[in-house]
Amino acid sequence: MTRDKYVIEILEGQQMTAGSKAKEDIVRFLVNDGFSKISFQAPKNKLRRLIFGKFYWKNFLKDVKNESIIIYQYPAYSRIMGDYFIEASKKKCITKIMVIHDLDSFRIYKDSPKDIKRELKFCNEFDVVVCHNDTMKKWLLSNGCTSQIISLNIFDYHEVIPVKDNKTEASIVFAGNLSKSEFISKIECKTPINLYGVYPKSHYKDNVMYQGAFDPSDLGNHLNGKYGLVWDGNSTDSCTGMTGEYMRINNPHKTSLYLTMGIPVIIWKEAALADFIVKNKLGIALRNLNHIDKELSKITEEQYLEFKKNSIDISKKLREGYFIKKAVRDALDLLN
Question: Which Gene3D superfamilies match (predicted)?
């Protein structure tokens, strides 16, 4: 039996950050792969969500056939609306595939067994869960996830701006929320660093230059550097704090931004995504950012050109949605 396939688009409306781009891209790629898009505008008022949430989802799913397949991107706006979605989908015998964007059990509620249990219980309502990588998969399984799990490996990234040809400029780019990137003010290096994003500090060291904040659709036009930096937290010795530790399990979306623009990556050695970068020769992994000048000096021109070529090659896959399409097709195979 051929079943209808849908991907939910939850409208939130963010600007000047990449907060919603990953979800928007997945909708775009899956629509191109045969899914139908259904857009859902959740009520902003918390009381309305609580009182009328069931009605919203019932009305939203009224035209979806019984036993259809739905892709649900998580997290999605509010816990209570997520619970109401599960309730409504069960009544229509919908097969549910979750795509995880953020796992708050590890990021925010790491020391709260109650919240971890609640989030994992929600994951277990889905037939298949698509998580970031094998490290996240292992964590989910060890903490009670009983759904079937597929690893994405890396987020795709829709882009139409041509790749960058920065083969000679010895500089680094960093894009993100600069207010939570305390490490930038502490880096001891001479290599120029170009910053992009919101909430910059008023002063950085002389080799660190703020370039501005841009809409995700335009950011690629402004990135200028030989490497893209993937680091987080408040230390240069290691990725620390809530956001830094989170790199042990997640796929930072900025990694995909850099590679989509053909820019090789510098990443924390203990990040979950470091193995993917090193194995595919897409850049280097470091334990300490203060060693950056020394480590970059070891890279020969031949090695860099290999990093560059591989970054351009994987850019083609990321721009086409290769990884999410493969993960979802693998999920569908598990359901057959």
Answer: Glycogen Phosphorylase B (3.40.50.2000)
CB burial of 240-277 (b: ≥16 within 10 Å; e: otherwise) equals beebbbbbbbbbbbbbbbbbbbbbbbbbbeebbbbebb
Domain boundaries, the chain: 5-156+321-335, 172-319
DSSP-derived 3-state class of residue 175:
strand
- What top-level class would CATH report for the domain 172-319? alpha beta
d(CA 310, CA 279): 11
Q: What is the pTM of this model?
A: 0.93
The pLDDT-based confidence of 109 (bands split at 50, 70, 90) is: confident
- Note the residue count of the chain: 336
Position 129, amino acid: V
3-state secondary structure of 105: helix
Q: CB-based contacts of 302: which residues, under 8 Å, 6+ apart?
A: none
pLDDT tens, 219-278? 999 998 999 999 999 999 999 888 899 999 999 999 999 999 999 999 999 999 999 999
For domain 5-156+321-335, the question of CATH label 3.40.50.2000 is answered with yes
Q: Long-range contacts of range 311-317, CB-CB < 8 Å, 24 or more positions apart?
A: 311/163, 311/258, 311/259, 311/262, 311/263, 311/264, 311/265, 311/282, 311/283, 312/163, 312/262, 314/259, 314/280, 314/282, 315/163, 315/259, 315/260, 315/261, 315/262, 317/156
Does a cis peptide bond (omega within 30 degrees of 0) precede residue 75? yes
